[in-house]
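To make this tangible, we now present a fold written out as tokens:
***
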Amino acid sequence: MIILSFTFILVACTNENIDKEHLVYIEDLGWTIESFHSSEQIIIGDIPPEILKLDRAANITFMEQYIGKELTVTNYQLNEKDLEGKNYTAYIYEYEGEIVGSKGVSSAYSGIFNLADKKGVEESNEELQKKAKELYGKQHD
């Protein structure tokens, strides 16, 4: 009984900072939140062209609409893991209390991805794993 109570307290403390709207948003995209990481106010400045190019390649286009505006960005560690076995990170952007977009970040490849494209992320991971196995197999022949 004591162990069960302790486990419940740990889970409650871990989840106390998870915004309910964020939880629903992330789950609607097919992901699950492991833990809250941080939240901060940022002003979107001029976005460097190389960042815009990476965002567009990942089909993330909302940032350009908010240049010069203050957004709240909250990030969460997700339960899902990348190719290196590290948890993905989700960034949720809000303007005036409304969610305006999100990004996912992986340490295993080019960095950012569109959280709305979970299937694409999973397919890319499978493709990268296949290529790695082919390359690894050729090196040891």
